[in-house]
Design goal:
Length: 286
């Protein structure tokens, strides 16, 4: 005999009795998508124009959707993009969204020495602070990949959270107290939508209906289990019209559940820090 539903005790407590948290992340890689691979791609006008579509067309369209839905988002932006698109960055901030660090030219941390990693982080912080007037508290590693020393470096530079690991589906604390808000490749648009002929990137772009089902099914199950649903989208991919419609439908369906907490990374991290001090029984180290 079937035994539905299986609803374990939630592993996490969210504000105001909400059943789950939702963090909408826009990784605005723009031109660094190409330039981090090969600087000579700067002369490949069509490839570059596909990347530029993100900051120039995708971000304004996605900002419009988030304003319409009255939902906050977190924008992780390489400082090269912040430098080259100051009006886009200002528009993100004036709409009340969070800007987090994401390298300078979207460098892969695994290719860097500890000294190089630190120099790039400091350079990106300097640019973000001078353009936005704010020091970011959140970090997403390019390609989601951090090094053994990254958490300590982020802590030392005053970061509240990292959103790069995949060890859990609720936030947890690093040994040094840095909050981790983990994500997963399943909830990323690159695997679904990225394609470029030459250089060859990605796969055959997926049908939005299939992607909706993939993400919605994961949201429904994460809500049952009290998780933190971290959706990561790139405006050069998810700013295309049918994909903005996909996001509109997904977020409206999430809102309609009535018990999902849609928050920025820093709001989630502040809540996690508060919970950690209020409730020692939460096993963040599990
Ligand atoms: Zn990125």
């Amino acid at each position: 005999m079937a035994k539905y539903p299986y609803l374990p005790e939630p592993r996490f407590t969210w504000p105001d009795g909400r059943r789950c948290a939702v963090m909408v992340c826009f990784d605005v890689d723009g031109e660094t998508t190409a330039l981090s691979e090969d600087l000579t791609l700067a002369s490949r006008m069509t490839t570059m124009s596909q990347c530029e579509y993100g900051p120039n067309v995708g971000v304004p369209r996605l900002l419009g959707l988030m304003k319409h839905l009255e939902l906050p988002a977190t924008f992780f932006i390489p400082s090269y993009i912040v430098e080259h698109h100051p009006k886009m960055t200002a528009a993100i901030l004036s709409d009340g969204h969070e800007v987090g660090a994401h390298g300078h030219l979207h460098e892969k941390l695994a290719d860097l020495s500890p000294g190089e990693e630190e120099a790039i982080l400091l350079k990106s912080l300097g640019i973000l602070e001078s353009v936005t007037g704010q020091r970011p508290v959140g970090y997403r590693a390019p390609w989601f990949e951090i090094n053994p020393g990254t958490a300590d470096l982020l802590k030392r530079e005053g970061f509240l959270y990292n959103a790069s690991m995949m060890a859990d589906d609720v936030p947890f604390l690093h040994d040094n107290g840095l909050v981790e808000i983990p994500g997963h490749w399943m909830l990323e648009d690159w695997e679904q939508f990225a394609f470029n002929a030459d250089p060859a990137w990605g796969f055959i772009p997926e049908d939005c209906e299939k992607v909706y089902r993939l993400w919605w099914d994961e949201f429904v199950a994460m809500r049952d289990y009290g998780c933190c649903f971290v959706l990561t989208l790139h405006p050069w991919l998810s700013g295309r019209p049918s994909r903005v419609k996909l996001l509109e439908r997904l977020l409206n369906d999430i809102i309609d559940t009535g018990d999902a907490w849609v928050a920025t990374g820093s709001q989630i991290a502040e809540w996690v820090k508060g919970e950690a001090s209020r409730r020692n029984e939460i096993n963040f180290d599990a």
